Amino acid sequence: MSDWLAPDVIASAPGRVNLIGEHIDFSQGFVLPFAIEDRTFARVRKREDREIRIRSAQRPDHLITTSLDHLNPRGDGDWERYVLGVIWALNIQSGLDIEIDGHVPLGAGLSSSAALECAVVLALNELFECGYSRKELALLAQKAENDYVGVPCGIMDQSVSLIAKSGSALLLDCRDLDTRLVPFDLAASGLQLLIIDTQVQHALVDGGYAQRRQSCESVVAKLEIASLRDLSLSALDSAQDQITVEEYKRAHHAVTEIARVLKAVDALTAKDFTTLGQLMISSHHSLRDDYEVSCLELNCAVDTAISHGAIGARMIGGGFGGSAIALADQAKITEMEDAIRVAFASAGFHAPRFFTSLPSDGARIEPLT
Ligand code: GLA
Protein backbone atom coordinates (compact mmCIF):
# COMPACT_ATOMS: atom_id res chain seq x y z
CA MET A 1 0.00 0.00 0.00
CA SER A 2 2.01 2.95 -1.24
CA ASP A 3 0.24 5.61 0.90
CA TRP A 4 0.82 3.60 4.11
CA LEU A 5 3.28 5.79 6.01
CA ALA A 6 5.68 4.87 8.79
CA PRO A 7 4.01 4.46 12.21
CA ASP A 8 4.16 7.07 15.01
CA VAL A 9 4.23 4.35 17.65
CA ILE A 10 4.65 0.58 17.83
CA ALA A 11 3.43 -1.47 20.78
CA SER A 12 3.40 -5.20 21.37
CA ALA A 13 1.50 -7.43 23.80
CA PRO A 14 1.73 -11.17 24.55
CA GLY A 15 -0.76 -14.03 24.73
CA ARG A 16 -1.01 -16.00 27.96
CA VAL A 17 -1.13 -19.41 29.57
CA ASN A 18 -3.07 -19.73 32.79
CA LEU A 19 -1.30 -22.06 35.22
CA ILE A 20 -4.39 -22.37 37.38
CA GLY A 21 -7.54 -20.40 38.28
CA GLU A 22 -9.95 -20.98 35.43
CA HIS A 23 -13.34 -19.33 34.99
CA ILE A 24 -13.11 -17.49 38.28
CA ASP A 25 -11.90 -14.05 37.21
CA PHE A 26 -15.49 -12.83 36.86
CA SER A 27 -16.26 -14.28 40.31
CA GLN A 28 -13.65 -12.01 41.91
CA GLY A 29 -11.33 -15.01 42.37
CA PHE A 30 -7.55 -15.38 42.16
CA VAL A 31 -5.83 -16.46 38.94
CA LEU A 32 -2.22 -17.41 38.19
CA PRO A 33 -1.38 -16.85 34.52
CA PHE A 34 1.91 -15.98 32.80
CA ALA A 35 2.61 -14.20 29.53
CA ILE A 36 3.96 -16.30 26.67
CA GLU A 37 6.72 -15.28 24.26
CA ASP A 38 4.39 -14.97 21.25
CA ARG A 39 3.28 -11.36 20.81
CA THR A 40 1.02 -9.21 18.67
CA PHE A 41 2.35 -5.90 17.36
CA ALA A 42 0.29 -2.77 16.63
CA ARG A 43 1.88 -0.10 14.42
CA VAL A 44 -0.21 3.03 14.69
CA ARG A 45 -0.16 6.37 12.89
CA LYS A 46 -2.34 9.44 13.45
CA ARG A 47 -4.32 10.74 10.47
CA GLU A 48 -5.47 14.29 9.75
CA ASP A 49 -9.08 13.17 9.10
CA ARG A 50 -11.53 10.86 10.95
CA GLU A 51 -10.88 7.79 8.81
CA ILE A 52 -9.71 4.52 10.36
CA ARG A 53 -7.76 2.09 8.21
CA ILE A 54 -6.75 -1.29 9.58
CA ARG A 55 -4.75 -4.02 7.94
CA SER A 56 -2.88 -7.08 9.06
CA ALA A 57 0.71 -7.91 8.16
CA GLN A 58 -0.54 -11.44 7.59
CA ARG A 59 -2.98 -10.19 4.88
CA PRO A 60 -1.61 -6.84 3.65
CA ASP A 61 -3.89 -6.84 0.57
CA HIS A 62 -7.03 -6.78 2.74
CA LEU A 63 -7.70 -3.22 3.91
CA ILE A 64 -10.49 -2.45 6.38
CA THR A 65 -11.71 1.13 6.12
CA THR A 66 -14.20 2.87 8.37
CA SER A 67 -14.55 6.13 10.26
CA LEU A 68 -14.70 7.30 13.86
CA ASP A 69 -18.29 8.30 13.10
CA HIS A 70 -19.25 4.72 12.25
CA LEU A 71 -18.05 2.96 15.39
CA ASN A 72 -20.86 0.61 16.24
CA PRO A 73 -20.85 -1.49 19.44
CA ARG A 74 -22.12 -5.04 18.81
CA GLY A 75 -22.01 -4.40 15.04
CA ASP A 76 -20.77 -6.76 12.35
CA GLY A 77 -17.18 -7.49 11.49
CA ASP A 78 -14.36 -9.81 12.23
CA TRP A 79 -11.10 -9.49 14.21
CA GLU A 80 -10.93 -5.75 13.51
CA ARG A 81 -13.80 -5.28 16.00
CA TYR A 82 -11.26 -5.81 18.81
CA VAL A 83 -9.22 -2.90 17.43
CA LEU A 84 -12.26 -0.68 16.86
CA GLY A 85 -13.55 -1.53 20.35
CA VAL A 86 -10.35 -0.20 21.90
CA ILE A 87 -10.54 3.03 19.87
CA TRP A 88 -14.15 3.36 21.05
CA ALA A 89 -13.35 2.56 24.71
CA LEU A 90 -10.58 5.21 24.75
CA ASN A 91 -12.86 7.69 22.94
CA ILE A 92 -10.11 8.57 20.45
CA GLN A 93 -11.07 11.53 18.25
CA SER A 94 -8.40 11.34 15.54
CA GLY A 95 -8.33 9.14 12.46
CA LEU A 96 -5.79 6.29 12.50
CA ASP A 97 -3.83 3.92 10.30
CA ILE A 98 -3.21 0.69 12.19
CA GLU A 99 -1.22 -2.32 11.06
CA ILE A 100 -1.48 -5.47 13.17
CA ASP A 101 1.20 -8.14 13.09
CA GLY A 102 -0.08 -11.08 15.12
CA HIS A 103 2.14 -13.95 16.27
CA VAL A 104 -0.08 -15.44 18.98
CA PRO A 105 -1.66 -18.63 17.59
CA LEU A 106 -5.34 -17.95 16.79
CA GLY A 107 -8.13 -19.98 18.38
CA ALA A 108 -5.67 -21.92 20.54
CA GLY A 109 -6.94 -20.61 23.88
CA LEU A 110 -3.78 -18.51 24.27
CA SER A 111 -5.61 -15.17 24.30
CA SER A 112 -4.77 -13.84 20.88
CA SER A 113 -7.68 -11.42 21.24
CA ALA A 114 -6.39 -9.92 24.49
CA ALA A 115 -2.92 -9.61 22.91
CA LEU A 116 -4.50 -7.66 20.05
CA GLU A 117 -6.53 -5.38 22.34
CA CYS A 118 -3.61 -4.75 24.66
CA ALA A 119 -1.13 -3.92 21.89
CA VAL A 120 -3.61 -1.39 20.50
CA VAL A 121 -4.61 0.07 23.88
CA LEU A 122 -0.96 0.58 24.89
CA ALA A 123 -0.08 2.15 21.52
CA LEU A 124 -3.02 4.58 21.72
CA ASN A 125 -2.27 5.44 25.36
CA GLU A 126 1.25 6.38 24.28
CA LEU A 127 0.30 8.18 21.08
CA PHE A 128 -2.39 10.36 22.67
CA GLU A 129 -0.60 10.71 26.02
CA CYS A 130 -3.71 9.47 27.86
CA GLY A 131 -1.71 8.63 30.98
CA TYR A 132 -3.68 5.55 31.99
CA SER A 133 -2.05 3.01 34.31
CA ARG A 134 -1.65 -0.61 33.22
CA LYS A 135 -4.63 -1.63 35.39
CA GLU A 136 -6.80 1.08 33.85
CA LEU A 137 -5.72 -0.02 30.38
CA ALA A 138 -6.66 -3.62 31.22
CA LEU A 139 -10.13 -2.44 32.27
CA LEU A 140 -10.49 -0.39 29.07
CA ALA A 141 -9.45 -3.35 26.91
CA GLN A 142 -11.95 -5.53 28.77
CA LYS A 143 -14.64 -2.88 28.22
CA ALA A 144 -13.86 -3.00 24.48
CA GLU A 145 -14.31 -6.77 24.46
CA ASN A 146 -17.43 -6.79 26.70
CA ASP A 147 -19.32 -3.83 25.30
CA TYR A 148 -18.06 -3.42 21.73
CA VAL A 149 -17.24 -6.96 20.60
CA GLY A 150 -19.93 -8.47 22.85
CA VAL A 151 -17.87 -11.14 24.65
CA PRO A 152 -18.54 -11.20 28.43
CA CYS A 153 -14.91 -12.09 29.31
CA GLY A 154 -13.34 -11.45 32.71
CA ILE A 155 -10.23 -9.38 33.43
CA MET A 156 -7.52 -12.09 33.53
CA ASP A 157 -6.27 -12.05 29.95
CA GLN A 158 -5.96 -8.28 29.55
CA SER A 159 -4.29 -7.93 32.98
CA VAL A 160 -1.61 -10.52 32.37
CA SER A 161 -0.97 -9.26 28.84
CA LEU A 162 -0.34 -5.76 30.21
CA ILE A 163 1.26 -6.46 33.61
CA ALA A 164 3.24 -9.74 33.35
CA LYS A 165 6.99 -9.90 33.95
CA SER A 166 9.45 -12.40 32.51
CA GLY A 167 10.47 -15.25 34.81
CA SER A 168 7.27 -15.01 36.86
CA ALA A 169 3.66 -16.04 36.97
CA LEU A 170 1.24 -13.28 37.95
CA LEU A 171 -1.02 -13.80 40.92
CA LEU A 172 -3.97 -11.55 40.18
CA ASP A 173 -6.68 -10.82 42.71
CA CYS A 174 -9.63 -10.16 40.42
CA ARG A 175 -11.51 -8.33 43.18
CA ASP A 176 -9.24 -5.28 43.23
CA LEU A 177 -6.67 -6.14 40.52
CA ASP A 178 -3.87 -6.35 43.08
CA THR A 179 -0.97 -8.35 41.67
CA ARG A 180 2.00 -10.28 42.99
CA LEU A 181 4.78 -11.80 40.90
CA VAL A 182 5.47 -15.43 41.75
CA PRO A 183 8.88 -16.64 40.48
CA PHE A 184 8.29 -19.40 37.95
CA ASP A 185 11.51 -21.06 36.82
CA LEU A 186 10.82 -24.60 35.71
CA ALA A 187 14.11 -25.12 33.90
CA ALA A 188 16.08 -24.78 37.15
CA SER A 189 14.17 -27.83 38.41
CA GLY A 190 14.63 -29.76 35.15
CA LEU A 191 10.95 -29.31 34.25
CA GLN A 192 9.10 -27.97 31.25
CA LEU A 193 5.54 -26.88 30.54
CA LEU A 194 4.19 -28.31 27.31
CA ILE A 195 1.32 -26.45 25.62
CA ILE A 196 -0.88 -28.80 23.61
CA ASP A 197 -3.14 -27.06 21.09
CA THR A 198 -5.95 -29.50 20.29
CA GLN A 199 -6.67 -27.54 17.08
CA VAL A 200 -10.32 -27.58 18.07
CA GLN A 201 -11.30 -23.98 17.45
CA HIS A 202 -12.89 -22.37 20.43
CA ALA A 203 -14.68 -19.05 20.17
CA LEU A 204 -15.86 -17.22 23.25
CA VAL A 205 -18.46 -15.48 21.12
CA ASP A 206 -20.38 -18.79 21.18
CA GLY A 207 -22.82 -19.17 24.05
CA GLY A 208 -21.15 -21.68 26.41
CA TYR A 209 -18.92 -19.17 28.19
CA ALA A 210 -21.76 -16.69 28.74
CA GLN A 211 -24.08 -19.44 30.03
CA ARG A 212 -21.52 -20.56 32.62
CA ARG A 213 -21.04 -16.99 33.76
CA GLN A 214 -24.81 -16.51 34.04
CA SER A 215 -25.10 -19.61 36.25
CA CYS A 216 -22.45 -18.18 38.59
CA GLU A 217 -24.24 -14.83 38.68
CA SER A 218 -27.52 -16.55 39.40
CA VAL A 219 -26.01 -18.28 42.45
CA VAL A 220 -24.67 -14.92 43.68
CA ALA A 221 -28.13 -13.36 43.29
CA LYS A 222 -30.04 -16.24 44.90
CA LEU A 223 -27.67 -16.48 47.87
CA GLU A 224 -27.49 -12.68 48.19
CA ILE A 225 -23.70 -12.56 48.36
CA ALA A 226 -21.29 -10.11 46.70
CA SER A 227 -19.48 -12.78 44.65
CA LEU A 228 -18.56 -16.48 44.69
CA ARG A 229 -15.29 -15.36 46.31
CA ASP A 230 -17.36 -14.78 49.47
CA LEU A 231 -18.78 -18.32 49.50
CA SER A 232 -17.27 -21.16 51.52
CA LEU A 233 -17.75 -24.78 50.53
CA SER A 234 -19.81 -25.45 53.65
CA ALA A 235 -22.05 -22.42 52.98
CA LEU A 236 -22.53 -23.64 49.41
CA ASP A 237 -23.43 -27.12 50.62
CA SER A 238 -25.96 -25.77 53.10
CA ALA A 239 -27.55 -23.63 50.38
CA GLN A 240 -28.07 -26.52 47.96
CA ASP A 241 -31.87 -26.35 48.15
CA GLN A 242 -31.87 -22.67 47.08
CA ILE A 243 -30.15 -23.29 43.74
CA THR A 244 -30.43 -25.74 40.85
CA VAL A 245 -28.22 -28.83 40.57
CA GLU A 246 -26.43 -27.22 37.62
CA GLU A 247 -25.83 -23.99 39.53
CA TYR A 248 -24.45 -26.01 42.45
CA LYS A 249 -21.93 -27.69 40.16
CA ARG A 250 -20.81 -24.40 38.58
CA ALA A 251 -20.40 -22.74 41.97
CA HIS A 252 -18.63 -25.84 43.34
CA HIS A 253 -16.04 -25.44 40.61
CA ALA A 254 -15.58 -21.74 41.37
CA VAL A 255 -15.25 -22.15 45.14
CA THR A 256 -12.82 -25.07 44.93
CA GLU A 257 -10.80 -23.47 42.11
CA ILE A 258 -10.26 -20.24 44.07
CA ALA A 259 -8.87 -22.34 46.95
CA ARG A 260 -6.64 -24.31 44.56
CA VAL A 261 -4.99 -21.14 43.22
CA LEU A 262 -3.82 -20.08 46.68
CA LYS A 263 -2.47 -23.57 47.37
CA ALA A 264 -0.74 -23.51 43.97
CA VAL A 265 1.01 -20.25 44.84
CA ASP A 266 2.33 -21.83 48.06
CA ALA A 267 3.43 -24.94 46.15
CA LEU A 268 5.19 -22.89 43.46
CA THR A 269 6.91 -20.74 46.05
CA ALA A 270 8.13 -23.87 47.86
CA LYS A 271 9.13 -25.45 44.50
CA ASP A 272 6.79 -28.30 45.43
CA PHE A 273 5.92 -29.29 41.86
CA THR A 274 4.25 -32.54 42.89
CA THR A 275 1.60 -30.60 44.79
CA LEU A 276 1.32 -28.05 41.99
CA GLY A 277 0.76 -30.92 39.54
CA GLN A 278 -1.95 -32.48 41.72
CA LEU A 279 -3.73 -29.13 41.92
CA MET A 280 -3.60 -28.81 38.12
CA ILE A 281 -5.15 -32.26 37.74
CA SER A 282 -7.92 -31.43 40.26
CA SER A 283 -8.56 -28.20 38.38
CA HIS A 284 -8.98 -30.15 35.15
CA HIS A 285 -11.40 -32.62 36.75
CA SER A 286 -13.43 -29.76 38.18
CA LEU A 287 -13.59 -28.01 34.77
CA ARG A 288 -14.53 -31.31 33.14
CA ASP A 289 -17.11 -32.57 35.62
CA ASP A 290 -18.50 -29.56 37.54
CA TYR A 291 -18.05 -26.70 35.12
CA GLU A 292 -18.41 -28.86 31.97
CA VAL A 293 -16.24 -26.79 29.62
CA SER A 294 -13.78 -29.49 28.56
CA CYS A 295 -14.10 -31.61 25.44
CA LEU A 296 -12.95 -35.05 24.24
CA GLU A 297 -9.75 -33.71 22.70
CA LEU A 298 -8.74 -31.77 25.83
CA ASN A 299 -9.45 -34.79 28.03
CA CYS A 300 -7.43 -37.01 25.71
CA ALA A 301 -4.48 -34.60 25.82
CA VAL A 302 -4.58 -34.37 29.62
CA ASP A 303 -5.11 -38.10 30.27
CA THR A 304 -2.40 -39.14 27.81
CA ALA A 305 0.06 -36.63 29.27
CA ILE A 306 -0.57 -37.95 32.77
CA SER A 307 -0.26 -41.60 31.73
CA HIS A 308 3.09 -40.70 30.09
CA GLY A 309 4.69 -39.14 33.10
CA ALA A 310 3.26 -35.60 33.43
CA ILE A 311 3.32 -34.34 37.01
CA GLY A 312 0.24 -32.27 36.26
CA ALA A 313 -1.96 -31.38 33.30
CA ARG A 314 -5.13 -29.42 32.65
CA MET A 315 -7.17 -27.63 30.02
CA ILE A 316 -6.66 -23.87 29.97
CA GLY A 317 -8.72 -20.84 28.99
CA GLY A 318 -12.36 -20.71 28.03
CA GLY A 319 -12.57 -24.39 27.12
CA PHE A 320 -14.63 -26.28 24.50
CA GLY A 321 -11.35 -26.63 22.55
CA GLY A 322 -8.14 -24.63 22.53
CA SER A 323 -5.15 -25.79 24.56
CA ALA A 324 -4.15 -27.94 27.49
CA ILE A 325 -0.88 -27.74 29.44
CA ALA A 326 1.27 -30.52 30.88
CA LEU A 327 4.02 -30.12 33.45
CA ALA A 328 6.77 -32.75 33.13
CA ASP A 329 10.45 -33.57 33.36
CA GLN A 330 12.22 -32.09 30.34
CA ALA A 331 13.42 -35.60 29.45
CA LYS A 332 9.85 -36.89 29.11
CA ILE A 333 8.46 -34.17 26.81
CA THR A 334 9.27 -35.81 23.46
CA GLU A 335 7.81 -39.15 24.47
CA MET A 336 4.72 -37.37 25.76
CA GLU A 337 4.25 -35.44 22.51
CA ASP A 338 4.52 -38.70 20.53
CA ALA A 339 1.99 -40.43 22.78
CA ILE A 340 -0.49 -37.55 22.44
CA ARG A 341 -0.05 -37.56 18.65
CA VAL A 342 -0.77 -41.29 18.53
CA ALA A 343 -3.76 -41.01 20.90
CA PHE A 344 -5.26 -38.20 18.79
CA ALA A 345 -4.75 -40.14 15.56
CA SER A 346 -6.34 -43.30 16.92
CA ALA A 347 -9.33 -41.34 18.24
CA GLY A 348 -9.76 -39.74 14.80
CA PHE A 349 -8.98 -36.21 16.08
CA HIS A 350 -7.08 -33.52 14.12
CA ALA A 351 -3.33 -33.62 14.76
CA PRO A 352 -2.44 -31.46 17.79
CA ARG A 353 0.24 -28.74 17.78
CA PHE A 354 2.83 -28.38 20.52
CA PHE A 355 4.44 -25.27 21.95
CA THR A 356 6.51 -24.33 24.94
CA SER A 357 7.12 -20.89 26.31
CA LEU A 358 9.07 -19.25 29.06
CA PRO A 359 7.19 -16.70 31.16
CA SER A 360 7.67 -13.39 29.36
CA ASP A 361 7.17 -9.65 29.77
CA GLY A 362 3.82 -7.98 29.32
CA ALA A 363 2.99 -5.30 26.76
CA ARG A 364 5.65 -2.77 25.84
CA ILE A 365 6.39 0.13 23.53
CA GLU A 366 8.75 -1.06 20.80
CA PRO A 367 11.46 0.97 19.07
CA LEU A 368 10.29 2.52 15.77
CA THR A 369 11.77 0.52 12.93
C1 GLA B 1 -11.30 -16.57 28.76
C2 GLA B 1 -11.72 -15.21 29.31
C3 GLA B 1 -11.10 -14.96 30.68
C4 GLA B 1 -11.32 -16.13 31.62
C5 GLA B 1 -10.98 -17.46 30.94
C6 GLA B 1 -11.34 -18.64 31.77
O1 GLA B 1 -9.94 -16.59 28.46
O2 GLA B 1 -11.32 -14.18 28.43
O3 GLA B 1 -11.59 -13.77 31.22
O4 GLA B 1 -12.61 -16.13 32.13
O5 GLA B 1 -11.62 -17.59 29.68
O6 GLA B 1 -10.58 -18.67 32.92
From TrEMBL:
UniProt GO molecular function: ATP binding; galactokinase activity; metal ion binding
Domain Galactokinase N-terminal: 8-46
Domain GHMP kinase N-terminal: start-end pairs: 82-162
One Pfam family cited in the UniProt record for this chain: GalKase_gal_bdg
GHMP kinase C-terminal domain ranges (all copies): 265-341
BP GO terms, sorted: galactose metabolic process
Record-annotated membrane-spanning stretches: none
Keyword DNA-binding: no
Lipid metabolism among keywords: no
Annotated keywords: ATP-binding, Carbohydrate metabolism, Cytoplasm, Kinase, Magnesium, Metal-binding, Nucleotide-binding, Transferase
UniProt-listed Gene3D superfamilies: 3.30.230.10, GHMP kinase, C-terminal domain (3.30.70.890)
CC terms in the record's Gene Ontology section: cytosol
Alphabetized PANTHER family for the sequence: GALACTOKINASE-RELATED, MEVALONATE KINASE/GALACTOKINASE
UniProt family annotation: Belongs to the GHMP kinase family. GalK subfamily.
The name this protein goes by in its record: Galactokinase
The organism's taxonomic lineage, starting at the top: unclassified sequences, metagenomes, ecological metagenomes
